[in-house]
Amino acid sequence: MDHYGLDADWERRMRGCAKRILVIDDLANRPHDCEILLDQNYYPSPQDRYDGKVPPSCQLLLGPQFVLLTPQFEKEASSPRSRDGRIRRVLVFFGGSDPTCETQKALDAIKILDWPNVHFDVVVGAGNPQKELIESRCAELSNTAYYCQTQDMAKLCSLADVALGAGGSAVWERSILGLPSIVVVTAENQRETVNALEAGGYIRLLGWHDETDAGQMADVLNQMSKQPTVLLQTGERVRDLMRFGAGGARRLSSD
After folding, report:
1. Fold that domain 72-241 belongs to in CATH
2. What residue spans define the domains of the chain?
3. What's the pLDDT tens digit per position in 110-132?
4. Angle at 99 between CA 190 and CA 224, to 5 degrees
């Protein structure tokens, strides 16, 4: 069960249909009646979040070591790319639909930076209503490549030196490949996780989408370009956080 609108009441009704119930959650804001609960996100005290919300016998699978990633990320993580802290390539991806139009801000930031020797990979999903406009804008920039619904996201993460992106599951895709990222919060359910990641020194948090603009994106990228040691340390920290992340789906199914 993976749905923010369902809770223990619905799960109890499903008891006649399933031997065991597994819940995927990250809000910890309602009770569950399940045998297993998976929350792959990072929090300082993950166990405390589900106190009193699940049965005492419930098996809790908490943290990025149980992250559910596609095999392509596991494959890339098995042969990690070595970075030197210099920014030569930047990945821009704000989710499949990018409802808050962060990709447009990022393209404005690229123009502000005017870095002809830095390559930008801009990725959008097929559901992005602005994808044609974004493709057209990318074509006007000699150092920018456009991708729509690409199957090569793991490779693009591996090739990049830093990323501009949203919270959510893409955080773990970047992290398992040791990719430092600048994060814009684009949905309320991302806020708690990204705040915890920023406090732990795992990401650079730009802020809530309504409070950020292209100038801020450009400023932070410019700052990070002058801090190669910080970039290297951040990459090492997120890779260490994810050191058991590869194979999370496989371990979950075998358990």
Report:
1. Rossmann fold (3.40.50)
2. 8-62, 72-241
3. 999 999 999 999 999 999 999 99
4. 60
